[in-house]
Hints:
The chain is mainly beta. It folds into two domains: about 1-205, no CATH class; about 230-305, Immunoglobulin-like, CATH 2.60.40. The chain is about 5% helix and about 35% strand. It is built from two helices and 21 strands. The strands form five sheets. A six-stranded mixed beta sheet has the order 10-7-2-1-13-14, with no helix packed on it. A five-stranded antiparallel beta sheet has the order 3-6-15-16-19, with no helix packed on it. A four-stranded antiparallel beta sheet has the order 5-4-11-12. Strand 20 and strand 21 (about 295-305) form a beta hairpin. The radius of gyration is 20 Å and the shape is globular.
Amino acid sequence: MKKILLSLSVLFAMSANAQLLDCSELFISEYIEGPGNNNAIEIYNPTNTSIDLTGYSINRYGNGATTGPDTWPLSGNLAPGQAIAIGNGQLDSVWVDPPGYWSLPIDPVFYNACGLHGSGIYPTPFYFNGDDAMTLEKGANIIDIFGKVGEDPGNAWTDDASAGYTDANGGTWWSKRQTLVRKASVKKGITLNPIVFNPTLEYDSLPDGTYSGMGTHSCDCSISTINEKNDASYVMYPNPVNIGGTVIISSNTKIEKITLVNILGEVVLFSSDNIISTNILSKGTYIVNIQFTNGKIAENKLVIK
């Protein structure tokens, strides 16, 4: 018990350093816990400036854990008023032993609705199943929480106030087999671990397996369009990448070409799709120049190790 309380106090201390103003920071805008492994977290930029995703991560605290979350680091850029859904990427059936069962691939419709996909290798954060707390973190600071870190609600968090919104007394599941969309009135994330997590306060519930709204979000934050022509949203993963690995750049806007430049300013690679193969490259730091078909241009640092 002392260890759990200590872990939670550290968590609260980290969160306390990240008190947020309305419309000032990324937050979780949609939570999808669908059939099988069709799970995704959507993040939204409510600010008037593009946000570099380097240093941000999505984390899963499984089954009441307070430490050692499964972590998915982000890299890329999210333009003002834009959202991107990041989901499970398991494309094949996988035998999991122990305990001994077939983990089924995700639905192609769900796959296409995601802007970016996890590796599909357990345990990434996108194997949550309704009783896991999810966080969006920036460095060591929590900037949004879905659920309650340190609490196992049973099968799911529910609408039952009598049980602290766990399923101890029944109640309707809200965090399992649901698509939950953040209400438009919500303008910032939850930075302090809640005493109880009532999912009905900030989320609207859509039927199980609803993917049609992924990648877009309605919010009452006022977004300026002054910088719209220069801003482009994309996510690049993995970054850093091990030499020989493949980097994928995902964007809602079609990519025209990618240019990779080394620290000497030399162009070392051209690509006409969204994939960078590092097989012929050396370890080091590079600048990725991304040109989109709508004329927008973005740059991002890539580390090959």
